[in-house]
Every structure is written in structure tokens, then in C-alpha cells.
Amino acid sequence: MLKVQIGQRRRQCCDGVSRRHALRLGTTSLLGGLALPQLLQLQAKAATKQAAKAKSCIFLFLEGGPPHQDMWDPKPAAPAEIRGPFSPIATNVPGTQVTNQLPLCAKMADKYTILRSHSHRDNGHTTGYHYVMTGRRANFADGDNPVPNNAFYPSVGSIVSRELGTKSEIPPYINLPHPMAGGGPGFYGAEHAPFVIEADPTQPDFEVKDLRPIAGLSQKRLSTRQKLLAGIEKLERNASRGRADVMSTYYEKAHRLITSPAAKKAFDIHAEPRAVRERYGSTQIGQCALLARRLVESGCRFVGVDAPGWDVHFNCFPSLQTDLIPYADRAFSALVTDLEERGLLDETLVVMMGEMGRTPRINAQAGRDHWSMAQTVIFAGGGTKPGQIIGATDKQAAAPATEPIGVNDLLFTIHTLMGIDPTRIYYGPLGRPVPITDGGKLIDALV
Questions:
Q1: pLDDT reading at 181 higher than 80
Q2: SS percent in the chain: helix, strand, coil, step 5
Q3: Whether 382 contacts 349, CB under 8 Å
Q4: Is the Cβ–Cβ distance between 416 and 52 less than 8 Å?
Q5: Cα–Cα distance measured from residue 94 to residue 109, given in angstroms and rounded to the nearest whole number
Q6: pLDDT > 90: what percent of the chain?
Q7: DSSP 155
Q8: Which of 44, 49, 66, 335 could covalently link to 62 via disulfide, CB atoms 3.0 to 4.6 Å apart?
């Protein structure tokens, strides 16, 4: 480890140098051949160490594009065709308003932060989803729907899995209630693919079927099968490592889960008291949020909840008012409050967003169309500063009126909060260097 003397105090590089001293070093000749990119990397690592708070992340993805002006960024002075039918209400943070469709979140706005200036230039659903999850623009046309659709670049959940590893018998990366479109491991491989719960936790017979033991199969027979499988896999590896290694990874994961009492306990949402389940709401997003809390409580590092239905092109306001916004309002407010009451909020980062916002002007079909130029993102816990608004949009909620925050700024900040160096480089199958984030910077006001 390199140590340098600065004034009367010793500073350690690179895991102990402060951001201020890294910059001071860059203006002197103390480190001779150290180039600016290396200095910036030192600075990023120092910032990561200082900001690291979160041990887990719950990522609530409102698939389709939630309308920011009808939720978190009301424009009451705008014309009716822009402001929509909903009215602003005060929150418990003086000066902060949301629409009247978010009454529960309004009462606990001191527990989260509203980022109003997120903006990017991908107006597609599948391509935008890919962009948000990986930080890289898609190389396919919008409408192509393979899942996962990130064949090369790893998703944020897979990065967390690789960097932080497992904390318990629970998989480090989980998707529910179905796979996230851009949530695959890319070239990281099957080891860092999400464990997917393809079941609806609102149903009375909900269970994670992968954890169900085979009827009539004793532990002795299961062990014998495992030994036989290991022998077959060894032969396959000698012939062709690729597919054999992938399948071996899946078999190992499945066996670990089937035989794990901790996993069965974590996934058993029926063990929750009725009052707790009702607090989250008897909706898919509500029960998925509750299950996500159980999973991070049991050691999962990253839970991605895919909540579809937000692509509101036609006659959108009845469904926004009765189904979409109230369900998200209850789920998010219950999740954040529950985490806080259990002493988990400081170490659990909660993010709620979609792949885009919606158009400022209501269209001829009484709906809002795709609009990636402005979007609101909500953060809670995990070392973030609560009770504030970051950024602003113009009078029509059409574009940031302050410095735009991009996709890679979000990912850079999420990784930093989780103690992951966003500048770290891995090499793809052909030796191509791939940094964890493709540029980006820390959202300083959030940390």
C-alpha cells in the first residue's frame, strides 16, 4: 500500500485517501507518473468508501413509465391539458408538494427524497428498460422482447451479486413476480443471474415452486442423485465446459434452495400477520414489496420488483386514480415505514422509478405518451438524505430546469451507496474492458 505524507498527517492510497487530498495530489508532482484518470479513480474509490451505507437494495420498477406530473412533480399553474385533473397537496416536509393521489407518501415525505431532474433520450420500453438496468444503450430495436435482453452487459442486480456476494443461504439477486426485461447477468454468467419468483404473492396458494421437495424423495435418495449428477457433470466438463458449467450452476443453486430451511422461511409470506399484509395492500406490487422486505431481512442483496401497467396512452386518469397510483402509494409508504421500524432502513436502499416519464401534454385519447426527457426517481434509506427535493423541471414538466441527472449518474450513485467501486473494470470474453458504470457521477446532494 502506498503511503504519502501531506502536512502533518499520513494519508493512505488508494483505500484511505480522501477526495480532497486526492485532488491535492493531482496538483503536485508527488506522484510523478500518475495520470488524471488514475487520480479520478482514486477519488471515486475514496467517495465509495465514505458513502457506503447500504447492504441491500430493493428496486421497485414501475414498468411502462409512471407520469411524473400526476404523481411527484405537480404543475398546478400549467394549463389543464398539461397539469391534468389531479391537485397538489402538502406533505409533512414544508414546501414539498405531491399530487392528491399520493396521500400516504405525503404523510412520510421526510423519509425519502424526490429526484425530479432525471432525463435520458431513449423513448422505448424494452430499450429504455435495458438502458436503465445496464447503463448502456440497447443494440436492438424497441419491441424486441427477449428476457433477459442484455446479452452482453450485466444488469445492476448482477453487478451487486458479483461485487457483494452472498450474505446467507438466500440468493443474492432475486426478481419477482417475473423476470426483469433487462435484468440478466450478461457476460458475468449464470452464477450472477437472478433467481426469479414467477408467482403472484397475492394468491392464497402462493409458494415458490422451486423450493417444493419432490414427493416421495428422501434425503438419502436426494444425496445419491447429487453424487450421480456430479459424476455426469465431470464427464461433460471434459467434453465441453460452457454448457456444463452453466447447468452445474443452476443445479447447485436449486439444490441449495430446496435444502435450505432459511430460504423456505424467507419466502413464506403467509407467516406475516394479516395486519402487516393489509398495510402493504392486497395488490401485486404491495405483496411483492412485502416479500422483498422479507428477502433483504434474510440476506438478499438486490431484489428487483417488476410492476407493469404504467403505459397509459388512452383514457389514463381513471386507472391511475383507482389502480396504479394508490397501489404504488401504499406499497412504497408501507415498505419504507416497515424497514424503518425494523431498524433496516439505514442499510437498505429503496429506489422506485420506471424506464421513462410521460408527455407533458395530454393526448387526444385522454392519455399521456412516452417521454424520457423528464422523469422522477424516488430514493429512501441506504445512506441517502431524506426529506428533500433534488432538481426541478420546467413549467410544463417537459425537461429539467436544473442540471439533468442521467441513467449512469443513478447507477454510479447506487453502486457507491452499496460500497461498490463504479469505476472498476472487468474484461469480457474477448478481453474487452467493461467498467461497472459507463461514466456517470455521484449525485452529491443525495448522499
A1: yes
A2: 40, 15, 45
A3: yes
A4: yes
A5: 10
A6: 74
A7: P
A8: 66
Domain boundaries, the chain: 56-203+265-446
pLDDT in tens, 11-31: 344 444 444 443 343 344 444
Q: Give the chain's end-to-end CA distance (angstroms, integer).
A: 28
d(CA 64, CA 269): 27
> From CA 111, how far away is CA 105, in angstroms rounded?
9
Cβ atoms of residues 124 and 149 within 8 Å: no
Cβ partners under 8 Å of residue 319, min gap 6: 309, 312
**Per-residue pLDDT tens for 37-83?**
555 566 656 666 666 889 999 999 999 999 999 999 999 999 999 99
What is the model's pTM? 0.84
Asked if residues 391 and 378 have their Cβ atoms less than 8 Å apart, the reply is no
CA torsion angle for 396, 399, 404, 406 (degrees, to 10)? 120
Residue 366 burial class via C-beta count within 10 angstroms: exposed 0-12, middle 13-18, buried 19 and up: middle
* DSSP bridge partners of 59: 304, 351
Architecture in CATH for domain 56-203+265-446: 3-Layer(aba) Sandwich (3.40)
Residues belonging to the chain:
447
Pick from 420, 301, 445: which is nearest to 44 by CA?
420
Q: Grid coordinates representing 305? A: 420488483
